[in-house]
Structures are given as C-alpha cells and as structure tokens.
Amino acid sequence: MKTALIFGSSGGIGHQFVEYCLAHYEHVFACTRQPQSFQTIEGDNQSKLHMMKLDPSSETELQLFSEYLTGRGFDIQLIINACGLLHDESRNIAPEKKIEDFNQKNFENVISANTLITPLIAKYLLPHLEAGAKAQQSTGVFASLSARVGSIGDNYLGGWYSYRASKAALNQLIKTLSIESSRRFKHCTIIAIHPGTTDTELSKPFQANVPEEKLFTTQYSVSKMMAVIEGLTLEDNGKFYAWDGKEIEW
Ligand SMILES: NC(=O)c1ccc[n+]([C@@H]2O[C@H](COP(=O)([O-])OP(=O)(O)OC[C@H]3O[C@@H](n4cnc5c(N)ncnc54)[C@H](OP(=O)(O)O)[C@@H]3O)[C@@H](O)[C@H]2O)c1
C-alpha cells in the first residue's frame, strides 16, 4: 500500500502536499500538531487520508507513531517535512534586521521548528521508508523543506540570523544523514528542497517587494517540487534542490 507521510500538514505548503499525495498515493498520513487547523479536503480521496495529531519535536510521539506503523502493511514511499518557522507575532518572533535584534529565546524557538524535526523524523521513520521502498522496489524519498537563505555560499544580503542559521544547520544535518543513509538505508534518497517564495502565512509579511510572477501559489510550488521528487534516483541522495530542479549550493 503506497503511502506518504506529510509533517506540518496544517501549514500552507504541507497542506498542499497532502492534497497532491491524496491523488497519487493509496494512503496519506497528514501529521500535524493542530488537526483543528487542518483545512478540510473535499473530494473522492477522503478514505485515503489519515489525520495524525503529532508533535514532531517529541521523540515519544514519533516513537509511538513508528510503533503504530509497524506491521500494518503501509509501504512508506515518501516522507516530507514541511514544518518551519520564520515569524510568530504572538511570541514576538521576527527575523532579525540587525544583531541587536538577536535573542536567545527566539533563536531556540526557530532552531527547534526548523532544524530539530528532520533528524528526529529520520531516527524513528527512516527504517519504515527503507522497508517500504524495498517492498515496492523503488526509491524512498525523504525531503525536508529548507530555504535558499540557508545556503552559506549564497548569502550576500545578511540579516535573518536565526532563520538562516537554522536552515544552514538543517542542510548540514541532511547532508550528514544522506551519507549514513547510503550505507544503511540503501533504497532511500534524502534531500533538502527550496519551494521558492510561496504565498503562505510564513511569507505574508515579506511579500510586498516580491514581483507577482515570483510569488508562487502553493499549488504551483508543490506541483514543481513533486516533479523534482518524483524524478529522484539514488544518485541524487544528499542534494539541495530548488523548486525548478536546479541544484543550490549548500
Ligand atoms: N512560504 C515560503 O515562501 C517559503 C520559502 C522558503 C522556504 N519555506 C519553507 O517551507 C516550509 C513550509 O512553510 P510554509 O510556508 O508552508 O509555512 P506555514 O504555512 O507557516 O506552515 C509551517 C508549519 O510548520 C509547522 N510548525 C511550525 N512550528 C513548528 C514547531 N515548533 N514544531 C512543529 N511544527 C511546527 C506547523 O505545522 P502544524 O501546525 O501542522 O504542526 C506550521 O503550520 C518551512 O520549512 C519554510 O521554512 C517557505
């Protein structure tokens, strides 16, 4: 039973990944901390949807999810981590314009949302992806949403200390994981992917200077990222892609 797991599925991009996968997979687990915020999906694919209330920064909850999946016949083919944090007015979190704006609490919150979740998902769920890919004789894909601003080589503007650092650290974790995976999870490809500037709550305060044609709908950015993901082979393990399939410098 070809299955996809989507984390951060109440988010703009995560929700659209769920919609896409419902049309292409036999089962889709929409993992979210807040199922009450998950926008209802209309249509014929309802029976494929498994809503999973889960905090992916909790090892206990990930372990329980892993135990739940064991022996139930789901062939996990795809895991997407679409969790992320750039700003949160309710907690006074905003990307820093200058070093005086930097503070420990915000840095920890941003790291927790952007960096910590991918290795935790890998720890508990990569064995399921490996088993699913092996069973289907295919390439299992674990894709985490990163951001071009996490590229150290591509940093010409500065600012956004916490977000940039959290995504740079995420990228290093993905690269490191891909090296271990080539030895231990030989049917899996692990990548980072940049969605392009996409119209969601996360980008809303920063859209004013984005030209119209460069601000993507979630439908467009997810369809482009899925085209990249569906074309991946084991050779692509450990790469950082943009939405259009071009590689980004780590
Ligand atoms: N939108 C853009 O222009 C853009 C550009 C570059 C990169 N990205 C990246 O793309 C990803 C998705 O972004 P988006 O635009 O869809 O953002 P979004 O609409 O704000 O959704 C982000 C989701 O992340 C999850 N999340 C946030 N903080 C979390 C935490 N502490 N622990 C666990 N989950 C947390 C939440 O999902 P649940 O409520 O379901 O748990 C939230 O809905 C992020 O990694 C972002 O950095 C986005």
UniProtKB/TrEMBL annotation:
It holds the Pfam family adh_short. It comes from Kangiella taiwanensis. This is SDR family oxidoreductase. SUPFAM superfamilies: NAD(P)-binding Rossmann-fold domains. InterPro entries: Fungal_SecMetab_SDRs (IPR051468), NAD(P)-bd_dom_sf (IPR036291), SDR_fam (IPR002347).
